[in-house]
């Protein structure tokens, strides 16, 4: 599939394109460090939110522990500055089988296995992306530093409904928007970066496009047959576009228009 056909559904799903002013800011060499650190944290967060979803809705206690242990080295790196590229390479991969809850949450029934399979695959990919960003940083001598979170994800999550299954549907729709926006930004920013980063960002398009599609499909499945979620999708599309186009003083990977 060409990059154009990958991006076409994403560009029609998103309610706006990334403003050129954001690209101008993101391609400045002095912002590269912040961009890469924030990108690396976004990969961890993408993995974490997928983990939270399946821990909350789908899997048994032991599997939950397995998942937490799988994430720990990555979390220790970000939150405690422990470890490095070499130690992360040594971290055990997820080996045990993930087992579903004996009585899955009412929210999920026939699609529980599908949710788990898709999310485990997504987590593997996000943690690999995390490793790849750290590899690039290490090669360039860019040291990791703590940074604050931007407003983007919070700005959408505060609109999540408080009852099920609407809450899960909303979270899945938000997941679709975050993945779609990441894909759009990687594609738009890539040509402005050096060869190495350009190649890396283009290589991420395919998986992020699939993550977007998986979240959207799951949202429809969880809502249930005959339930139309297009209004909810349009609602979050508006919220997301507002966060992307309105002024934002805090430059980050998902920030709004630079002031
Ligand atoms: Fe990713
Ligand atoms: Fe992703």
Task: Please describe what this structure looks like.
- With 259 residues, the protein is mainly alpha-helical.
- It has one domain (3-252): Ferritin, CATH 1.20.1260.
- The chain is 67% helix and 2% strand.
- It has 10 helices and 2 strands, in the order H-H-H-H-H-H-H-H-H-H-E-E.
- It has a two-stranded parallel sheet.
- Helix 1 crosses helix 9 (195-223), helix 3 packs antiparallel against helix 6 (112-139) and helix 6 (112-139) runs antiparallel to helix 9.
- The longest helix has 29 residues, at 195-223.
- It is globular.
- The termini are far apart.
- The mean pLDDT is 92.
- It binds fe (ii) ion (FE2) (2 copies).
- One fe (ii) ion binds next to helix 3 and helix 6.
- Residues 46, 126, 179, 208, 211 line the site of one fe (ii) ion (FE2).
Please sum up the structure shown:
This protein has helices at 3-13, 20-26, 32-57, 61-80, 85-90, 112-139, 152-157, 166-189, 195-223, 230-245; strands at residues 247-248, 257-258.
- How far the N terminus sits from the C terminus, by CA atoms, comes to 37 Å
**Which CATH top level class fits?**
Mainly Alpha
Summing up helix and strand content along with how strands pair, one would put the structural category as: mainly alpha
What characterizes the major β-sheet?
2 strands, parallel
Query: Radius of gyration from the CA trace?
Result: 18 Å
At the fold tier of CATH, the topology name is Ferritin
Order of helices and strands: HHHHHHHHHHEE
CATH superfamily: Ferritin, core subunit, four-helix bundle
Residue runs with pLDDT of under 50 for 5 or more positions = none
Helical region count?
Answer: 10
